[in-house]
Design a protein that fits this description.
The chain contains five helices and seven strands; from the N terminus they run ββαββαβαβαβα. By secondary structure, it is of the alpha/beta class. The chain has one domain: Rossmann fold, CATH 3.40.50.300. The protein has a seven-stranded mixed β-sheet with strand order 1-3-4-2-5-6-7, with helices on both faces. The two termini are 29 Å apart.
Length: 206
């Protein structure tokens, strides 16, 4: 459970990120996927991450300290259509450098709007993560916007599409920032990884 969440710093590049040994869990997705709202729901703080009606608000790597134990990282959205080519390339480079160079990154949560069919830009990014060995999980957002049957159908359709290229799927979560759906499962997953990391560290010190 997330008991405390504190904004730490925003940076334009991975080399400026905090010099910390704490594990990091980063959140990313296409613009307007509901990333800030999901982060605020998980942290029980509606004002923690800045939400906006205008997509593309997050343009930096934002670090938040959670429970004084780990960092939640809010990454810029990819594929923001209204950004110029130069800015899109800069954001792409920022995201890729963070994913590939940040040793503290334990898991990247890729957010997908459950209402849509699999989008080329999401599939390409997911495949890029796989090719580069970046650990990630898929988080469907806006689960309250569909009925239970349609929601299940859309999620299964997405899994089926991924299995055309993947032998095994990463963890999949279904969430809603409006109802709190999936919030507990997501934080439990993070806490389980943190416990496993602690056990590994203890063994290494023996």
């Amino acid at each position: 459970m997330i008991k405390s969440a504190q904004y730490i710093i925003s940076n334009p590049d991975v080399t400026s990120c905090p010099q910390s040994s704490l594990p990091e869990y980063a959140f990313i997705g296409r613009s307007n996927v509901g990333k800030s709202s999901l982060i605020n729901m998980l942290c029980h703080n509606p004002k923690l991450a800045k939400t906006s009606q205008k997509p593309g608000k997050t343009l930096l790597i934002n670090h938040f300290l959670i429970n004084n134990e780990w960092h939640l990282v809010d990454l810029p959205g990819y594929g923001y259509a209204q950004a110029g080519q130069k800015q899109r390339e800069a954001l792409k480079r920022m995201i890729e450098r963070y994913c590939l160079l940040r040793d503290q990154l334990v898991c990247l949560f890729v957010l997908i709007d459950c209402r849509h069919e699999p989008q080329k830009i999401d599939l390409e990014f997911i495949n890029w993560l796989g090719e580069n060995g970046v650990p990630f999980a898929i988080v469907f957002t806006k689960g309250d916007k569909l009925g239970k049957v349609r929601l299940k159908e859309n999620v299964e359709a997405y899994k089926t599409r991924l299995l055309e290229e993947w032998e095994e799927l990463p963890p999949v979560f279904v969430t809603s920032s409006e109802t709190g759906l999936g919030g507990e499962e997501l934080t439990n997953y993070i806490e389980q990884i943190n416990r496993d990391l602690e056990i590994t560290r203890s063994r290494d010190h023996e």
